[in-house]
Structure prediction request, 549 residues.
Amino acid sequence: MKVTDLFMRAIENEEVKYIFGVPGEEIEDLLFSIHDSAVEFVPTRHEQGAAFMANVWGRLTGKAGVCLATLGPGATNLLTGVADANLDHAPVVAITGQGGISRSHHESHQYLDIVGMFRPVTKWNTAIGHPSVVPEVVRKAFKVAEMEKPGATHIELSEDIASQDATGLLDMIPPRRVRRPGPDYKAIAMTMDLIQEAERPLVLAGNGAIRKLASKHLNLLVERTDIPVVSTYMGKGAISDRDPRSLMSTGFGPVRDHVMEAIDQADLVITVGYDVAELAPRKWNPDGNKRIVHIDFDPAEVYSHYVPDVEVVGDISGALWEVNQRLEKQHKHFDTEWFEDARQHILDDIKSWDLEEGKAFTVPGVLNVIRDVLGDDGLLISDVGAHKIWIARNYPTYRPNGCIISNGLASMGISLPGGIAASLVDPERQVVAAMGDGGFLMNSQELETAKRMDVGFTALVFNDNNYGLIKWNQESHRGASVGVELGNPDIRAYAETFGVKGYRPESLSELGETLRETLGSGELAVVEVPVDNSVNSELRVSLEAHGRR
Prediction:
């Protein structure tokens, strides 16, 4: 038995179903060992696509997604997706090959210090130096990737180690559930004092609020107290946006969005699973004077606009459970009138973007159609671009992981590969992977992977022939834009060259019919929607006008 066979025994021990990657010479032994295992290797068309698939798999399941690349350019191509997973707190285990140790002491073909390269973008990474350490290295990689806060880990396996004999080294280390520590009783007591003193408390639910049991206990808190909840982009769905206490997402950052009406009035902000990386505190606490309770797996980041009065560090669901137990005894409820106007303004704003028959398509208008067609349990995956802002503020989400947005590293190109992973996780779930024309063409080659894997989801391309978010920012700052104009192929025809059904609806009624058809059939489809991006500047103007009233 070779080291790669032992390696795959350890991977099987982690109950991995898929490894996403691109083959290479230095991982030949590993590829054949994967072929002989119970794990399916999914060849992708680019290593970045493989890492994005692993990322979304990890976010949806809580179990580490696995991606594979060879040495040199394979590893460097993998890097962006691994970094994205790490800042998005998605559990991912990345595996790379390497040249033989005998040539590592001098300049060598395709040889790079991959372990050193991955160090800044992973929670932990290492090279396997001896056959006997394989079970420990693999178990540690998965344990560290999946434990709170989740993130990326990396294993390097050189071709000479990979081919060595590992006969007799069969003992696997069984995965064990890691119990996270409960909250400190003094921190809970201080939290209860702050809640008792508050008149207008508000919860800011972040990425950690949708993991484990945090969402369940957060919903109990809201039901018992009527405390409203604002989510970050990655916390969408922590409570259902149908709940009258939901104030949707943190909105459009450059100007004062409607949700800020409530945040400004709040005299206590309880952050739950909040990651500073995805939303700078200065955007919601510009004066740095908010009273804050920080509830998270990790201590608060040191930040001048984020200085919590108390930090409840430990298991989030355990902390919320303890708070709920004490609040139940105290029968504590809060007035809801103070935030009802803000919620109504948010809902009215979303409705105001409804499309009219005969008028040009816009991103917010199309999102309203998607929301009408897509079931409550469906999944919308957002790429990065101007549409991400609209999805965050305008797309109601009704369950945890009902909307996936990358907002840590915020890498373009994640949505299409993410749709493949989501469809593999749950083939029966309706999935819309939404992206701009820029993000689509960064990883559009993965349509071939999707077709080959026979997965079914709708890839919806908002086409404005621009890097729209950059144009939006430039015009806001300078009144003009440069370097953002793009040319595109016939996207519908392009999809059809992969054997994928392509659509380009030309009316509101046709758009609705198209989405009902593609989602109802469960087949793979690409829907190109040409959009008028003038609504981007209209949003800023309307919010500024509202703020002056």
User: Anything to note?
Assistant: The domain at 353-548 is CATH 3.40.50.970 (Rossmann fold).
